[in-house]
Amino acid sequence: MSSVQPPDPQAVQEVDVAVIGCGPVGALTANLLAARGVSTLVVERSATAHGQPRAFSCDDEAMRIYQQAGLLDEIRDATIAPPLVEYVNGAGRVFARMALSETDFGYGHAPLRFFDQPRLEQTLRTGLDRFPHVRLSLGTELVGLTQDEDGVTVLLSDVSTGQRRTVRARYVLGCDGARSATRAAVRIPLSGASYAEPWLAVSGDVPPDAVRVGDTRFVCDWRRPAFVSPGAAGSYRMEFMLRPGETEDEMRRPETVAALVSPYVDPDRFTVTRAVVYTFHHLIAERWREGRVFLLGDAAHQMPPFMGQGLCSGLRDAANLSWKLSLVLSGAADPAVLDTYETERRPHTVEMARTSVRLGHVFLARNRAAAWMRDTALRAVQTIPRVRRFVERFEFKPVPAYRRGLMAGGRRDGVVGTMFPQPRVLVPGAPAERLLDEALGDGFAVLGRAGVDNPLGAWRPGLPVRFVAVHPSGTPLGDLPDPSGDLPDGPGGGSDRVDVVDADGVLGGWLRRHGADLVVLRPDRFVFALVAAGGIERAGRDLSAALGGPSCGGGARADTAGLAAAPGS
Fold first, then answer.
1. What residues contact 100, with CB distance under 8 A and at least 6 apart?
2. What are the tens digits of pLDDT across the range 128-150?
């Protein structure tokens, strides 16, 4: 990556994609695009790093997306995974808990991790340095855009000097947050609700022996609900609801903050790094696309914080759209594929937001009687083992699945349209077990039992597809074919076959359970199709038809093959 030098105002820079906003969603989006060879300009209004610990948590799906961006080690090493989340009443009595250390959704990572946002953003921005075809323009804001059938003309302004310049992009991605200038430029309205209750968010650093509550807790005190938790790198995060009549200035006073944090940390040894009053929202953009302009993250949707899914939802947007854009830009897919971005992502986002609202109702009982009834009811129902498991194992979280979109048949059917698991595998030439995605590569993958002949010979030329042959657990690595070098780093690179050993038997068990010899996986690791050994050529035709483009009649689309693209459906 290179930073943009003072531009010639008369020159028009041309890029494949302009990403507006370089917070976590914008920076991740740029990494995912760049890893697929897309020339990208990232525009950020702030001249310096944001430096504020705003977002705090991510989940296993988010970590898998960071893994796809090639930044897993750096991000994982700077996070912590809480073993437990407790819901306590005003007296500190536990009435519900989530046993996160005992929860595994099968995607290769802990179900919840806490991070420091400034460090996360620095890692994501440093990741852009890997790519010479990415430029980051700091201190620059979007002031206008116009579209035509071939691209978008973007007008940018230097924040400090007011000097303007023009960029020509084939697509523009608005990752510029709740007050999105991109959304405003294409006149897309928001709908939903803003909540009247303000909250004080306090972040700071504290030595371990000054921590008084070492667990993650939702304090469901009807007098003042709160959230408290240790964070990454010696940090601690607390949020407190304001009572009627309390003002922002009053709540941010050092003596007020000290009194609020005192039950959880030693206030004399707690260094406040951020103390702000905010209100939360449940909003969604009327549409997420206007021509060649797309909205991602908070620019497209905002939700209450009780599930910790605001940032995660934006990362899912990036993972969904980036690979589709790269295929369209390379000519391997018809532009109609991009319609499936909102078709797939909107229903899941809406469901996640609704779950967050419902969880908030549990958290925010605002009188003594309601709080007593909640505590009593939740303690009672958790005497039922199945209900207790539902709560403790976080099973109320919406599963990563799409109802309609780019999948065989165009609709979810069983596991088609769901995220594929990511167990550990053994690969010849690798010294230890590896997560499955490292063997799958960056493009489409066909995974199946090793006895099946390489099924890719008849598949669409130019489409990055890899066959992953799965050998049973216990198979000696020496019995596997020599991969003749490292696994390919990018789509289409190196061998189109990789042999792996199913270390824990998860892959073989999954195929048997779903009656399949092969499974076709999308680049974002959602299941495109289940296939019997004799049906792989049909699956290849279905995928080709779903992607459109020159090899299937000039972009003709067959709903039975896998494109259902009615936005918002």
1. 81, 82, 83, 84, 85, 110, 111, 112, 394
2. 999 999 999 999 999 999 999 99
pLDDT of res. 539:
87
pLDDT digits (tens, 9 = 90+) for 343-373: 999 999 999 988 888 777 676 766 677 767 7
- Segment holding 440, helix H or strand E: helix 436-440
Measured between alpha carbons, how far is residue 331 from residues 73, 360, 466, 524, 555 in Å? 33, 45, 19, 19, 11
How far is the CA of 550 from the CAs of 150, 332, 334, 408, 539, in angstroms?
18, 8, 8, 20, 18
- Kindly give the interhelix angle for 24-35 and 310-330, rounded to the nearest 10 degrees: 30
Count CB atoms within 10 A of the CB of residue 314.
28
Higher pLDDT, 568 or 417: 417
pLDDT class of 176 with cuts at 50, 70, 90? very high
Strands 444-449 and 465-471, how do they pair? Answer: parallel
pLDDT, one tens digit per residue, over 218-244 is 998 888 999 999 999 899 999 999 988
- What is the tens place of the pLDDT at every residue in 474-492? 999 888 877 654 444 433 3
DSSP per position, 514-549: TT-SEEEE-TTSBEEEEE-GGGHHHHHHHHHHHH-S
Q: Is the distance from CB of 159 to CB of 153 less than 8 angstroms? A: no
Task: Give buried/exposed letters for 256-273 (b at 16+ CB in 10 A, else e).
Answer: bbeebbeebbebeebebb
Coil, strand, or helix at residue 259? Answer: helix
Residue linked to tokens 């596997």: 480
Q: What is the pLDDT of residue 273?
A: 92
| Residue 567 CB burial class (10 angstroms; 0-12, 13-18, ≥19) | middle
> Which of 92, 21, 58 lies closest to 305, judged by CA?
58
Distance CA 116, CA 49 (A): 13
Q: How many angstroms separate the most distant Cα atoms in the chain?
A: 73
* 3-state SS class at 459: coil
Give the residue carrying structure tokens 């696309």.
289
User: Would you say residue 185 has pLDDT above 70?
Assistant: yes
Four-CA torsion 70, 73, 74, 76, nearest 10 degrees: 120
CA distance 79 to 326: 30
CB atoms within 10 A of CB 101: 12
Statement: residue 5 has pLDDT above 50: no
Q: How many CB atoms lie within 10 A of CB 76?
A: 17
**Dihedral over alpha carbons 426, 428, 434, 435 (to 10 degrees):** -80
369 C-beta neighbours (distance < 10 Å), count: 9
369: left (phi over 0), alpha (psi -120 to 50) or beta: alpha
Asked whether the predicted pLDDT for residue 561 surpasses 70, the reply is no
CA–CA dist 55, 424 (Å, integer): 29
Average model confidence (pLDDT) for the chain?
Answer: 87
